[in-house]
Design brief:
The structure is a homodimer.
Chain A: H1 2-8, H2 12-20, H3 27-40, H4 46-53, E1 58-63, H5 69-84, E2 88-93, H6 98-108, E3 115-119, H7 128-132, E4 138-141, E5 157-160, H8 162-175, E6 181-185, H9 190-202, E7 212-214, H10 220-233, E8 239-242, H11 245-257, E9 267-271, E10 285-288, H12 291-307, E11 317-319, E12 322-324
Parallel strand pairs in A: 1-2, 1-3, 3-4, 4-5, 5-11, 6-7, 6-8, 8-9, 9-10
Antiparallel strand pairs in A: 10-12
Helix pairs in contact in A: 1-2, 1-3, 5-12, 8-9, 10-11
Chain A binds a DNA duplex (30 and 30 nucleotides) through α2 and α4.
DNA sequence: GGGTCTTGTTTTACCGGTCAAAGAAGCCCT
DNA sequence: AGGGCTTCTTTGACCGGTAAAACAAGACCC
């Protein structure tokens, strides 16, 4: 920068003014400076700028993994929003490894990010106090644990109303006349199941625990097994609620294997299927989560909080999912869908 | 830091020595400094350190997307290797948007990363000259375009031998006695197909273009359609090669739908299925790519090149995939698998 | 008992920018 | 022509560390 200044016959500060554009510079001077910049191939050093301004224009994002489509999408959405605001993304996948997460958190406590987003309850709740003294805003998002009653205190939270998502799914099946239903769930998705159950309770139908089948693993295979178990256990079942996309896709294939057609014999409603139904034969009816909105709000809270740290609104923001119709749900068959067709 | 120094009755430099541990400090002094650090809650400022040392301990990674399992895994592997070496990950997903990538590249040209990894030919070849003048090492990895003949010049390349992967798959099917085979491929996977074809040519069997079915989209649905098309077009087909995991999983389901069992009537070999076969009914026979190795070598080349910029070895490193047996392949049926069972 | 090592600590300068205040032109106006 | 305004440019300090050389103080040595 000094070389550029010399060559253009001005001071460093004037070069800085030209580069940042924050202070007006006379056209003639600016031209000289720009020429010098071009001739010398000068590129400003962002690290130095960060040191001087106190802002790195980088935001940290912690997710449990990017191998789950939910988080992969979230990462890209966050990146999009950050890009709009001229920020970069520092990513840490914690793999649910608390120790690992702790190390990374420790690595950030010095001002190397402008803000930190922690997505997904990752068993990090225990480490949150570590962040209490952070000198930058920390926002929790996509936080399912603690819902529907309480969320961690002391940090802004931007998350999804998973309970409402489950409720939407339940409501939808009820509206279609389904009364004998089962749930395929991942162990971590209790909140979604709770919402689903609430919908049925409101409809005067109690959903027994035996109707909830946990998938041992969040894989296609796990979904197949859970679905097969569910349909065998209650042959009169006319609809399934799957708490995530892969389980739902597996449920559809399991039904086909058992000789049931979807949605004629069996309806399947998913929670958080990818909008395009990448994993399934045809687009599924699914509760769709406003991930993009969540990403935007999380970033806005995080970066907005920079300006007004004290006034940061700590009431959790719960974004509402929507039900998007696909072709995997239909009216309950007159005489209990799976009853007669399932081969035991 | 100055406050800490004052409180401990030493200079900044001594505090620095204690914190970095690079220079020995007398135990008594060190204790005083550590106490002062603890009392004041001092945390070193990494930005300032970066400015002084010229190293940010951050590595940039460009991938087309993290929604594809291949890249999601790669990102996590890279992160693991970086963590071992005490570096952080700055992620940019380009979404195959050249303009976007260009902007991000421009944002990095100042020394905000120690090195840059560009994974996946992303139509970025045109932008590479932009990086020719970069002041940090740039390594290309997972670069499929240009194989098997040539790879971009001027940058170190650490990539996978996709051609060999296809060859392994072909060799395997030949060994099992399959002669009438078809390929389900993504348009971008020409190299894998070429390797597969070479294996058959070496076996004296020409694979006609009509045996290669492109999936319109890299989805389950796209795979189903391509598989169905393949099996209808050549009813005598006894084996399929699918160039990526989702296509392969779809192929298995398509076969079932057509009344074929896998592997009795139809063998399916995948390229780059996730090791655990997350998407399929059972683990598929698949060419497995040494992603972790690739990540490690890419990072090592990138960070190693820091020390010896001139001696950087520019010969492309091609890592060899392996064939991992699952239960989706078996000997070719005596009388052409799909021939009699496929309903047209 | 003065050179020569070690070892630990300080000095001085620098990394490459930005900020805020002060200074210098140029313009307008009465 | 001189005072008051703008508008642009320079000055000097600072962001928070690290590098390298200089310095002090014992320990060792013959």
């Amino acid at each position: 920068m000094r070389d550029v200044a010399e060559r253009a016959g001005v001071t460093k500060q004037t070069v800085s003014n030209v580069v940042t554009g924050r202070v007006p510079v006379r056209p003639a001077t600016e031209a000289r400076v720009r020429d010098a910049i071009a001739e010398l191939g000068y590129v400003p050093n962002l690290v130095a700028r960060s040191l001087a301004t106190g802002s790195t224009r980088t935001v940290g994002l912690f997710v449990p993994t990017v191998r789950a489509p939910f988080y992969a999408e979230l990462v890209e959405h966050v990146e999009d929003v950050l890009e709009e605001r001229g920020h970069r993304l520092l990513l840490c996948t914690t793999r649910l490894d608390g120790e690992r997460a702790r190390r990374h958190l420790a690595g950030l406590t010095s001002r190397s990010v402008d803000a930190l987003l922690i997505a997904g309850d990752q068993g990090l709740t225990g480490h949150l106090p570590l962040l209490a003294g952070a000198r930058f805003p920390v926002v929790l998002c996509a936080w399912e644990a603690g819902l529907p009653d309480g969320l961690p205190d002391g940090f802004p939270v931007v998350t999804l109303d998973y309970e409402h998502g489950g409720h939407l799914a339940g409501r939808h099946l009820l509206d279609l006349g389904h009364e004998r239903v089962a749930v395929l769930a991942s162990p971590a998705h209790g909140v979604r199941v709770a919402g689903f159950r609430r919908a049925f309770e409101e409809g005067g139908i109690a959903l027994p625990d035996s109707a909830v089948h946990l998938a041992a693993e969040p894989t296609f295979r796990g979904g197949l097994e859970a679905a097969a178990a569910a349909l065998r256990a209650a042959p009169g079942t006319t609809a399934l609620f799957a708490t995530h996309d892969l389980l739902a896709a597996a449920a559809v294939e399991a039904a086909r294997t058992l000789g049931l057609s979807v949605p004629e014999d069996l309806s399947v409603v998913a929670h958080d299927d990818t909008p395009e139904g990448l994993l399934s034969r045809s687009p599924l009816t699914s509760v769709v989560l406003p991930k993009r909105d969540m990403a935007r709000q999380a970033v806005e809270v995080a970066l907005g909080a920079l300006d007004a740290p004290a006034s940061a609104d700590l009431r959790p923001r719960l974004l509402r999912p929507e039900l998007v119709l696909g072709d995997s749900t239909g009216r309950a068959p007159a005489h209990g869908g799976a009853r007669r067709t399932v081969r035991p």
